[in-house]
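Morning F.,

Quick status update on the modeling queue. The single chain you submitted on Monday has been processed. Sequence for confirmation:
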Amino acid sequence: MKSIIFSFIFLFWAQAYAQDSYRAIQPIGAIPKGTDISVKAVNPKNGFFNPSKLNSANPTDIQTIPNDSLLSVNSVKSKTKSADMDVLKSLADNDELVVNKSAFSANDQSCVTKGTCTLSSDTAVYQSSKFNFFDWLRDLFGMGETKSLVTPSIDEKTNPKSASAAVLAEKVTNTNRTLNGQNNSCLELPSELKYDRRFQCGLAQALEAHKLNKATGKVTSDTFIFNDFKDNELTGKMYFFNSEGQLTQVLQKNPIPVARGVNGFGPNFRQSPNGAIVTRAYRPPRGGNINDGIELLGLEKGNTNIHGRGVLLHGSSPYVATWGCLGVAGTIDTDKAGVEELGGRPLYLDELKDGLLKNGGVMIYNFTPKKASLCK
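Structure tokens below.
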């Protein structure tokens, strides 16, 4: 009875928050002083919120950020040439860069009043992206890798109303299966993955890559990370395995969600790498927009450029696409003003960088659509 009441409350909340589009706000750094920018009002049909402050204890408590406190950055011009500046310009061109009005210094108020200015000081900015509500809600309800009988559309993954309806329907189905004795509760790999031909093929690829690179000394850890991205979803699953192909207890949760690049997988801009890569020792902080990340090296012919591209494993909402990196919940450290206002400190990367990833030498295998296509 309680679950039915909760379902109605949850659906009522979802109806109340069913805006045209929801945008997750994440700190990515700052626009440097001396940069010419132009801004405009954000789309009034969008709802903005900080994903790190979603309340898992009370999922009805979504704290939106007032639209009138934000401005959309629609152009960034600077004489400075850098990869970070290229990212900022690209975000602005795609209407995915926002700034809080309060971040502007007293000397930069013409940006607020006239819409243009030359920044006299570094100004914190944020990436604004669609949010994968479906995966977040499944994770919230602890549904993990349970076989879904509900296939969500793209809209259901980004719209809280339809996503909550799909997840609740799946929750009811899974509860009924448990009551009928159809679910097996154990700590090993879920049965649907044991018999998932593509997943097992990917795991075999990863084990072979781990064996090869361990023999050459490029990989030193017996534990490796397997990212299941075979369906090209924005949010994949990050598993921790040992060299025998068994799940290991690196974190309290295995798997955890992980985000891919906005342009999928490959060697190019805004793409995450395919296949085997390896972590370098954690060396905080590094320069750039993301100061707190794990540096990565490519182990395959098609991903050897990732270190030069600045591809990292870094703190991010795992339900928002990255700019070619791998994003898991963890510290986002931009070392700029305004971060505490819209930012936050999630969990997993902080534990990993102090544990498994501290000394480097850990293989990460991205099982992507390209790698899945090799499975017969």
